[in-house]
Amino acid sequence: MSKKNLMRSLGFIVSFILFFASTLYAEQSIDERINEAVAPLTDAVSSVVFYAVPIGEVNLPLIIVWLISGAAIFTFYMGFINIRGFKHAIELVRGDYDNPTQKGEVSHFQALAAALSGTVGLGNIAGVAIAVSIGGAGATFWMILAGLLGMSSKFVECTLGVKYRNINDDGSVSGGPMYYLSKALAVRNQAAVGKFLAIFFALMCVGGSLGAGNMFQVNQAFKQFVVITGESESVLLGYGWLFGLITAVLVGLVIIGGIKSIVRVTDKIVPIMCGIYILATLVVLIVHIADVPRALWLIISGAFAPESVTGGVLGAMIQGVRRAAFSNEAGIGSAAIAHSTVKTDEPITEGIVALLEPFIDTVVVCTCTALVIVVTGFNAPSDMNGVALTSAAFASVLSWFPYLLALIVFLFAFSTMLSWSYYGLKAWTYLFGEKKATSLTFKILFCVFIVIGSTMSLDKVTDFSDAMIFAMSFPNIIGLYILAPEVKRDLESYLARLKSGEIRRFK
Fold this sequence. Notes:
This protein is mainly alpha-helical. Helix content is 75%, strand content 2%. The chain is built from 22 helices and four strands. The protein has helices at 3-24, 30-49, 62-77, 81-84, 86-94, 108-119, 122-135, 139-163, 177-187, 191-228, 240-255, 258-287, 292-304, 312-328, 335-339, 347-354, 356-375, 386-395, 401-432, 436-453, 458-471, 473-500, and strands spanning 52-55, 58-61, 166-167, 173-174. The longest helix is centred in the middle third of the chain and has 38 residues, at 191-228. The radius of gyration is 22 Å and the shape is globular. Residues 24-29 have low confidence and may be disordered.
């Protein structure tokens, strides 16, 4: 896109958002009005996606069983690829096997960074706090286990994402579950089923991008800025729309340029924000070094003892698995859209790279958040929730940290919105065609939802986000089950050629 067209498109987006904001926010208390208007829809969708069966004192959402059983099956079926592929994944990310002549748009590292920017977000900060506050410290154990198993789901879906992607005439790539569901099942004389699953996935992906990848992120980022400016007395109260408007403009500046523009930002933001956050975690843990053994014991014992706020062992398990799935998106299929853009002729390589994603996102970053909350004693029931709880836990050691956390939270939210704008865009163009006008329409819509999300209350944003993103797993995992034997054959072939030296290093 030329600079002239870029500025024209950006100007159109800004003008549209300003018009939208001036129309909706002409009166005070519009935040509450929007929340009330959207609440019935979010409640209806959530009740369907999270249909639960009562077991003892708790209700077990069947979607949790769907995700964790799929992850476990893929782990065993692929011969624990999440463990035996770990070393080779590091080699691929380092660029040891990068071949610049192969088709695609980005490197292995850039594809991983783009996908991580979509998963390492507010779920790692606010979502973990919700899990621990409801499910107790033991939820952390189940979160880690779900992350380890989810590495195998991510391997399968991202391998398929590359194998069945479309290379467009301009060199750009379109890939993801909607493509491997429709194309691979068509080969198996199941074209109608594949098309139905692909369309359903694409529709849910658009909803997920506007919810989990957009509204939830900006909502919690604004919440942190409210916290550091005085909460109930904050000068920002009632101005969520303004925060959303500024964020929408910043996001619009990046997403107009497509995936290459996005990865130029994410491959810099992701390592920095993760590094700062983990460093801050280490400082807190060092200060509370004497409490770390007790915290680890609470996490392990709480996973198998009825110490959660609600539901005992099952309650802890449900909260841990739910937050892990929301955070790392294994089995959801979203990351396959970003990983499909990689430069490679070996789809298995990107599947192996992708298994690092749940490990970094859940096993490392989410565990860091949970440990800080537990060692500082903020895992006890309280009126705080979400990002405010995590902020308070850090502030108990580093009084100034909430200000730094506000920046980290914004970076997490910002990078997540960038990646999810791309996921939603590719689902949108799958449904409505690869045209510039079609793409621009979605980008405007995405920016408008940033403004809306910044005004909504935590409960409704979380319900809508979880419902849309989890609904994507229904068609995706069905497809993964059907195509898993094909992936296993490709994996065995690749590992054999790697061992024989047929596949060689380029660095």
